[in-house]
Amino acid sequence: MTDLTLNLESLLGERLRLDRESRAKHSRDTWVLSELDDLNESEIPLPLAVAEPENAQEVSAILRACRDARVAVVPYGGGSGVCGAIRGPAGALVVSTARMDGLVSIDSHNLVATFRAGTNGMEAERAVQKEGLTIGQWPQSIELSTVGGWVATRAAGQFSTAYGSIEDMLLDLEAVLPNGEILRTRRTPRAAAGPDLRQLFLGSEGTLGIVTEVSFSLRALPACQRGQAFHFADLKDAIDPIRRVLRDGWRPPVVRLYDAPESHRHFHETCPEGRAMLIFLHEGPERLVDVQSEAVAQTCQAAGGTAADASSVDKWLANRNHVPGFRSFLEKGIILDTIEVACLWDQVTPLYERVTSSLREVPGILLASGHSSHSYRSGTNLYFTFVARPDDAGAMADTYRECWKRTIDATLAVGGGISHHHGIGRVRRDALPQEIGQAGIDTLRAIKHALDPENLFNPGALLPPISA
To answer: Mind listing the pLDDT tens digit for each residue in 83-123?
Structure first.
């Protein structure tokens, strides 16, 4: 055992995991290329150990010890990330938030709930629903991810069109900085006390510290919920109705538009083949739901949409938290993934056409499709799916990278953003300079150096190497 592990063992006892199984389990997230490495039994770097602190004070002691020993630190939440943010160097210490879980407090009057960072997302939602409240954050991975992970990856949920994403729900947080200091932001609905320090950790992917506690601004559970569906000739015909609905001031929590291949896959009972399905979910007081759904129907039908059975939305609700696994496909020589990007309204159709046509040129491609699942006054996201079976199974990783490159290149070419809500990790890392510019990269590196001068926190994630 090293001096560091002896030190940490005296602090944590059995909560310092040294066995190979624990170290391997915490060496990666669910990135497809990591899954492929696992299938191929490739050698991957293993962490030195997995630490399981129970509070911010223990995290502080751990980080001070790692700084003194010059050992890298990789924060670990639910492990549900899909971009390779967790793939640390050999000999790093993984700090798991698994034992920092549970509800700290709930204030129904001020609509505030505080959770320890390792709290499972669904457990957090259930806790506030007992009080007739909701967080409003529904990522597909809600049953797998943690509330601290939502902050670290700047996550968005399926109800974001009305309720916003994690940055709109986060009221305050506690985090431990790389030097072991504990930072707590002020609990106030808004502040003009300089730059917002919460933003340092939103999307930081474990590179600037470890989030240990988060507070959310809640909302009341809706009195009424109603689904609505329409199908259109194709995806581009349904984009403008979404824009108009939001321009007119309506805010359905769920607005999802699927192209023809995805519509057939998800809604073949209610959407004619070759058509694009657009679904809405309305929530709130019944009178608001009545008026909003009527206005949405008028807008969609005026644009050529045909009303579809609202049971389509019920079906989507029943299956929305299912997270498909990749392993069974990889075993058959099929490589696949989803890539979410964002753009302004006038970029949607050019981006969709450019990405799907480019993906169809990849040898072995079986499917290139897309949908929109988060919309805003000024634009939307596009969520692309690719499925390919290269002739040579050994080329799966190269095919994967080619599909990603084509999608990112097309997004940048039309002026879109390369990530909407899955983060950067390692899969998008080298494209980040094109996204935020050299000045942006320099700024992030300056912040990183100020907080983590030894570059010990999740090295290799988010920021490209200086030599890149």
So the answer is: 999 998 999 999 999 999 999 999 999 999 999 999 999 99
Domain count for the chain, please give it.
5
The H-or-E segment that residue 213 falls in is strand 210-217
Closest CA relative to residue 14, chosen from 64, 50, 48, 47: 50
Q: Do 88 and 129 reside in the same domain of the chain?
A: no
**One domain for residues 92 and 176:** no
DSSP for 145-203, written as a single string = -BHHHHHHHT---TTHHHH--HHHHEEEEEEE-TTS-EEE----S---SSS-THHHHTT
CA distances from 277 to 117, 361, 374 (A): 37, 26, 15
CATH number for the domain that contains residue 340: 3.30.300.330
Enter the DSSP assignment of 274: T
Asked if residue 394 belongs to a domain, the reply is: yes
Contacts of 399 by beta carbon, 8 Å cutoff, 6+ apart: 335, 362, 363, 364, 388, 390
Q: Is residue 421 part of a domain?
A: no
Q: Which two tokens stand for residue 327?
A: 């392993």
* C-alpha–C-alpha distance, residues 461 and 465, integer Å: 9
Residue 28 lies in a domain: yes
Listed residue (165, 162, 166, 163) closest to 147, CA to CA: 166
pTM above 0.85, yes or no: yes
Instruction: Please report, for the domain that includes residue 293, its CATH number.
Output: 3.30.70.3450
pLDDT bucket at 467, cuts 50 / 70 / 90: low
> What is the DSSP code (8-state) at residue 96?
E
pLDDT at position 26 over 90:
yes
Q: How far apart are CA 415 and CA 434, in angstroms?
A: 10
Residue 457: give the domain boundaries. Answer: 428-468
